[in-house]
């Protein structure tokens, strides 16, 4: 019997429908085999602070499609891009729910970079990297507008000094800083104190508000023989905003670096890991005057007993470096009291140091 036109039309329609269904299923199967490109987002943006890193805030985000072993590298922009939260802690872990969270110093802008395992990030950048060569995805965000943060400034020895309140990784691990640990007394002497508050050790640091360049930097420091093994006093010049990883730094450091019977003082031309860049000595009890004479291609250090440098003063130690001496840029003088690996010294006690005078001679 000859099939009716309706029957033929129905069979053709059913065949076309089946063909479309199979095509959709195959397309879905093929698309499910194509992995989505990982991406990173910043969901909590810290405040903006154009003046540079003054304090810490939290930054949060998502890393969708991240593979095992991939991590986040954070940067904050303050003139240039600075790795966050610290140079020795460059990676932020991604949680099982794809979220990530860490602290950061403030800047005008923020960046989160998803990177492959084994990626070696730069600590400072003038521009952010492009995708590729270990960089999987990048997200940037402008800091939230807020009222500017006003730093504490004190006047000491005829100069204005900015008091640090942001954390620092000086000493090889994060240290917190409290502006209340810095003050001057009725004699005009500067006090720096390090103590524990609610289970957290807080340190003290000041830095000049302007650069001085070549010349003599003189520090008169009272007795530091009470320092425990983890206490460290740094008297140094440093360019905090240098756009590369070369430390433009000359140091007078008073510390035993965690070893009770170690020598307690040293002169350094950074980087310290080059043996010729360090001269260690034993600083005796009592008032000492430490001097750095910075010249082109030459850094001369000297420590004497007492508060005056003269022809009859007893020299404790002196050393001259002629290799690796930096040239002036935007460096400033710093004085900082901090803890070196305090977690390894459970018996550490509060420490206070008194600096009687700072003097600069061109």
Could you walk me through the main structural features you see in this protein, from its secondary elements to its overall organization?
The protein is mostly beta strands and 362 residues long. The chain folds into two domains: 39-142, Immunoglobulin-like (Sandwich); 153-361, Sandwich (Jelly Rolls). It is built from one helix and 24 strands. The longest helix has 28 residues, at 5-32. The radius of gyration is 29 Å and the shape is elongated. Mean pLDDT is 86; it is low at 1-15 and 17-22.
By CATH, the architecture of the largest domain is named Sandwich
How can the largest sheet be summarized? 16 strands, mixed
Global structural class: mainly beta
Order of helices and strands: HEEEEEEEEEEEEEEEEEEEEEEEE
What is the tally of beta strands?
Answer: 24
**Global morphology:** elongated
Helical segment count: 1
Spans with pLDDT under 50 lasting ≥5 residues? 1-15, 17-22
CATH topology-level fold name of the largest domain = Jelly Rolls
List keywords for this structure.
single chain; 362 residues; mainly beta; Immunoglobulin-like; Jelly Rolls; 2 domains; 16-stranded mixed β-sheet; 1 helix; 24 strands; elongated
Quick overview:
The protein has 362 residues and is mainly beta.
Strand-helix topology:
Blueprint: H1 5-32, E1 39-44, E2 56-64, E3 71-78, E4 80-84, E5 99-105, E6 109-115, E7 124-125, E8 135-142, E9 153-156, E10 159-163, E11 176-177, E12 182-184, E13 190-197, E14 200-208, E15 215-221, E16 231-238, E17 249-255, E18 265-269, E19 278-281, E20 288-295, E21 298-305, E22 315-321, E23 332-339, E24 351-361
Parallel strand pairs: 11-14
Antiparallel strand pairs: 1-2, 2-5, 3-4, 3-6, 4-7, 6-8, 9-10, 10-14, 12-13, 13-14, 13-24, 14-23, 15-20, 15-24, 16-17, 16-23, 17-18, 18-19, 20-21, 21-22
